[in-house]
Amino acid sequence: MPIKIHPRKLAGPWSAGFALDFHTSSSTFIGYNSFGHPEFDTKRPPIGDLLYKLKNRGDLTALEPICEAAALFLQSWPIIVDAMIPFPPSNTTRKRQPVIEIATGISKRTGIPLCTSCVSKVKNTGQLKDIFDRAERDKILADAFIVN
After folding, report:
1. Which residues are CB-neighbours of 137 under 8 A, at least 6 positions away?
2. What is the pTM of this model?
3. Of 84, 87, 109, nearest in space to 99 by CA
């Protein structure tokens, strides 16, 4: 049975964009561990938990349910998707790149062509997960990609 998702529309310079759900529902600081690192009690919806496991724990068992949920959502759209173009990752140290792995899985399930070489990253930007200001993100990402 597919995981439960709660798609939400994303605003941006595109005609239609969606997230399958929130990544995190809540995160409460609970103290410091024995190494002095902060610890949190973090709650995530099912898709957020799977993404966390895949990206942060390298848990490849999370890949199939993510791809299934995304493929079912895409197939429910009343539009034709001509191609999927995954953006190059910020963190290039991962042995297997979650964005590429997910895009490949969705492509296999839907038959939507995948172009992993259509966009290349030409400038290191670092991770943007903690940068919420749109203008600041745009400045960091300026001239970071080229279309092949």
Report:
1. 128, 131
2. 0.83
3. 87
